[in-house]
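Lab notebook page, bench 4
Experiment: in silico fold of construct C2
Operator: M.H.
Input chain length: 406 residues
Purpose: comparison with the prior construct
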Amino acid sequence: MDSQTILQQAMDETNGIVFGVWFLIGAALVFFMQAGFAMVETGFTRAKNAGNIIMKNLMDFCIGTVVFILIGFGLLFGEDLVGIIGAPGFDIFTSYGSFDWSNFVFNLVFCATTATIVSGAMAERTKFLSYCVYSAIISAVVYPIEAHWGWGGGWLSQWGFHDFAGSAHIHMVGGIAALVGAAILGPRIGKFHKTKDGEIKVNAIPGHNLTIGALGCFILWFGWYGFNGAACTSIDQLGSVFLTTTVAPAIATVTCMIFTWLKYGKPDVSMCLNASLAGLVGITAPCDVTDCLGASIVGIVSGLLVCFGVWFLDYKLHIDDPVGAVAVHMMNGIWGTIAVGLFANPEVPGYSLVDQNGDQLSGLFYGGGFGLLALQNTVLSPLTQTSLPHLQTQECSDTQRTTQRA
């Protein structure tokens, strides 16, 4: 064995160790995002509910850990059963010496993120016990099964579907769960008022501390570098992902600022904070396959989409979402999933998108035709249609299902 081969082996081993450590650092950054979610939700709601919201965010992770150990991890990464579900198992107890500890921790914090998204949309009117049950079901069954489809060897991964860090598997699914929960609960007292002529008036219920909300936004943005970047396997790929993860939310925020300034005569601070998060959600799926131009367009659309989403829930669906979780996570999760089919650029470092036959896939605007776009759109249907048909427009008044329980 010559010296060049030995050197290459040493470099490969060092590279594996470095990125193995980075993988766990990324998991820690994603865990720190729980603090960001807690701050955003607390700041955007009223002071009297702060303790309730903090407790829910704490128990999201703690209850999620318990059920993920017992059932969730097996359903996610157990032996694939017909492409739909993983075989449940207890290797964490029976084969601890050979257990994949890093993968467990990483996917646990991702699972907790999915469950936490729900908390904001259901804030200020959910019984604590009921919320704990809802959160446990998401962590034990909902997230592990649908994530298995794309990340655990299920049918989506076999088709060539691409969601690098979770626009669909985490944010869209968490946003759908939030939408369903908020619709079932009904609005807070005073959110909607039915006038004598039958028109439904929407009343703003401001949060009590914009500073805490802004702090939460910055914490989430910081944690997102681990969220998107933890699975990278080279310095070049990591640098590219960091760039797109910075560009998209920044441009989304500027877009939202300009839009709200023109529409309302001044920038809307809380909407701009949500626009930052919307840009992060939108770039989560395509962060590893887009260039700077693609990330910029993703950001522009996200900045406008979050404004539309908040308006649509308030004025058309009449669903009360105190923190804008549905507009940020569900709508931009869908957009980020579609964006892969539009902006996937084969020249991006670490690019590896291929179909079932091993042929390279690329985005519509980079010469790939409609193949990847059709694939990304097709797989959205089973993830959304199971939940969205159950929603009905809420004809709300101050006397409809508005008891304050938080």
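Observations: The chain has one domain: 19-390. Confidence is low (pLDDT under 50) at residues 392-406.
Next step: discuss at group meeting.
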